[in-house]
Amino acid sequence: MSALPTFSPEQLQALSVEQLQELLQLTERLQYVTSTNRLADYRPYPKQRSFHDAGAFFRERLFMASNQTGKTWGGAFEAAMHMTGRYPPDWKGKRFDRPTRGMCGSESVELTKKGVQRLLLGNPEVPEHWGTGSIPKDALVNTIRHQGVPNAVSGIVVRHVSGGESVCTMASYDQGRTKWQADTLDWIWFDEEPPEDVYMEGITRTNVSQGPVWITFTPLLGMSAVVRRFYPEMTAFPNTHVTHATIDDAEHYTAEQRALIIASYPEHERKARARGLPAVGSGLVFAEADEDDIKIRPFPIPPHWPQLCAIDFGWSHPTAAVRLAWDRDVDRIYVTAAYRKKQCPPLSFAAAVKPWGDWPWAWPHDGRQNPEKFDNKDHKQLKDIYAGHGLKMLPLHAQTEDGSNGVEGSVAELLNRMLTDRFKVFDHLDEWFEEFRMFHRKDGLIVKENDDLLSATRYGTMMRRFAVVGSRAMPPRAVQFPTPSSRGGQGWMG
Questions:
Q1: Nearest alpha carbon to residue 335 among 471, 160, 456
Q2: Which candidate in 60, 78, 107, 192 is catalytic?
């Protein structure tokens, strides 16, 4: 049914009573048709689309997000697509061309009814309206009622476009892992975080089919065993993918509404409920810094601001790089670009960052190593290999003017800059903010994991005195470095 035409107040006043009644009936009919085929009108937000698309490449997916950002909504519509076979024309995720056997559930039967079932079928308290959820009414064949919980279902039978019927079984975590010991399944959806034994039982049910398993939840349980399977991303299990969304990704809220929602949460729950962040270690390193305060929209860098780049070498963990701009008038540093990639050869990495410009490059002390994993017949130092691919590596490894290069000192400087409005990051650099949110301590010590872009940022900040203005860029060997004698005879590593 096509959309109804719009009428001005004057046109409505000109209609007869009979015409108004007909218009009302058509409007109600259109609303009914729309409500009973929501799948046809599903338009995912960018983060939901990213989550769906990852299903084509990763078997296990986690949609870890703040409250009310559409994570469960996205999970329900993907389940409906796999049951009906009705995929949108631009669908890039996992696809089934036959009927499927799936399973989904949440923490308890009651919560499964109020969450998963409501989104799949419609209002659980009004069975005659079932078919107004993500599963179209004309595809709904049957529902199997749950014994003991009014209006709860334990199974859903759905007509697939191929002609057969898909079956989805409903379960809950409080029933224990044995409830999830079904036959071979094609897919599983966990809404809210499952216990580890329940999750592993679900994985086992899809081992034969190698079908998709996805979780949608807000990480209120902290850095649990299930979360660690996915996150942080750079140390996750193979074939897993995490989509992270904050309240800023929820396009159905205004900025004012977001602020009110965040303020309504208790302080200790705000990072989980508004940012979708699990609690980590014994404390976030940058807990005092507000992410919104350091975010800034990208803008053209004034030509008189000096710039430089910095790199953190890696292989099993990513090689990472940032570009920094320095407003010397107010001593404010801006992170304007970021790039990281695991197991990336120097040639490929250099090619990826060369478009940033011909700037000096800061690098850490391990750049003096002679790596064996690259074609290094001349036994070159790591920094020289990158220099050979066109990056202007500074001849001195990253250190402050007094020769120090400690992690704690450089981290303290970054935090101090964040708290005094002297450090900003372009707001589209999602990977940088992922590391910022998870950088933490354990037993009082900084955990040096998944901090590759942050490390590069520290190196660049330490070496900002060698940043150059574009029109006066010069080869790094022409830069005059302080000597040990100029610092009162204190030694430093060259």
A1: 456
A2: 192
Give the pLDDT of residue 227. Answer: 81
Output the CATH code of domain 294-487. 3.30.420.280
Tell whether the model's pLDDT for residue 389 goes beyond 50. yes
Cβ atoms of 291 and 436 closer than 8 Å: yes
Instruction: Tell me the fold of 45-279.
Output: Rossmann fold (3.40.50)
Give the 3-state secondary structure of residue 448.
coil
**pTM higher than 0.90:** no
Distances (CA, A) of 457 to 76, 225, 311, 340: 40, 30, 8, 12
What's the Cα-to-Cα distance from 468 to each of 306, 330, 361, 383, 404, rounded to whole Å?
4, 17, 11, 20, 22
pLDDT digits (tens, 9 = 90+) for 445-489: 888 888 999 999 999 999 999 999 984 433 333 333 333 333 333
pLDDT classification of 107: cutoffs 50, 70, 90: very high
List the chain domain ranges: 9-35, 45-279, 294-487
Active site residue 192: yes
* β-strand pairing of 440-442 with 283-284: antiparallel
Provide the 10 A C-beta neighbour count for residue 131: 18
Q: What tens digit of pLDDT does each residue of 83-106 get?
A: 999 999 999 999 999 999 999 999
CA 72 – CA 449 distance, rounded (Å): 30
